[in-house]
Amino acid sequence: MIRRRFARASATYAERADAQRRIAARMAGLIARHVPRSACRNVLEVGCGTGVFTRMLLRRTHPSFVWLNDICPEMRESLADVLGERVQFCPGDAEQTEFPGGQSLITSCSAIQWFDSPPRFFARCRNLLADGGYFSFSTFGQKNLQEVASVTGEALSYLSLEELKSVLLPHYELIHASEELISFSFPSPLEVLRHLQATGVTGIRRRQWTKGMLADFCRRYERLFRQTDRTVCLTYHPIYIIAKKIAS
After folding, report:
1. Considering only 21-30, 190-199, 205-214, which range has the smallest mean pLDDT?
2. Measured between alpha carbons, how far is 18 from 24 in angstroms, rounded to an integer?
3. In 58-181, which ranges are E strands?
4. φ and ψ at 101, to 5 degrees?
5. DSSP characters for 15-30?
6. DSSP E strands: which ranges in 3-151?
7. Mind listing the pLDDT tens digit for each residue in 41-72?
8. How far is residue 93's CA from residue 211's CA, in Å, rounded to a whole number?
9. Interatomic CA distance for residues 201 and 199, integer angstroms
10. Cβ density class 48-66: b for 16+ within 10 Å, e for less
11. 89, 114, 182, 248: which sits with the fewest CB atoms below 10 Å from its CB?
């Protein structure tokens, strides 16, 4: 389901993913600031999508070799301009796919919230990292798309910043941990849904819309979240983590 959703959105993602682009820029900047250049030799990026974050990371860090992973094999076409001898694509479910060990940096931007077990994936990344390697990622917190959750009663099971810290701290040194709220305005609730559909990010795992459900959603969203300028708001809640593997 998730794979099909993002595959369908691949053609419109880069154009409509304003929040994701802003988050990617911040993530790339944090890596450039906090991760030494020597730790950017061998890089694994998980959930690369169409490569919005990938291109920023390549420009900022100039790694020697990069594995790009995404659950959608269809993303290879969107990545054609960056793929080559030192940048290779490895499609598959990141929680199951076998990746080469000895990575100096594992990174992910706006993807881990979809995983069945982020804590298990964090432990897996530790095993893939070389001693002193870095694990840097952004994900989303509990206020993410809170307006949609309020109207539909459905949301992903987001981990809080404190919960993420508690999972990571036994095996990683936290170099940076922060969160923010980003608010966007849209002309109508229908435009909110179009934005979410265009980026593949609905905040819920499965929903089949009927005409009546759509009308009810728009009516309730408008009543709860209409702003003084008659637009409606949508909130993103990104969390940014940079951690360093503690040697065994």
Report:
1. 205-214
2. 10
3. 65-69, 87-89, 103-109, 129-140, 172-179
4. -80, 180
5. HH-HHHHHHHHHHHHH
6. 42-46, 65-69, 87-89, 103-109, 129-140
7. 999 999 999 999 999 999 999 999 999 999 99
8. 34
9. 5
10. bbbbbbbbbbbebbebeeb
11. 248
Q: pLDDT tens digit string along 12-31?
A: 444 446 888 999 999 999 99
Q: Do residues 103 and 123 touch, judged by C-beta distance below 8 A? A: no
Angle formed at CA 48 by CA 19 and CA 77, multiple of 5 degrees: 110
Selected from 3.40.50.2300, 3.40.120.10, 3.40.50.2000, 3.40.50.150, the CATH number assigned to the domain covering 2-141+158-182+237-245 reads 3.40.50.150
Structure tokens at 76: 């290879």
Number of neighbours of residue 227 by Cβ within 10 angstroms: 11
Cβ–Cβ < 8 Å for 13, 50: yes
Q: Which stretch of DSSP H or E encloses residue 182? A: strand 182-186
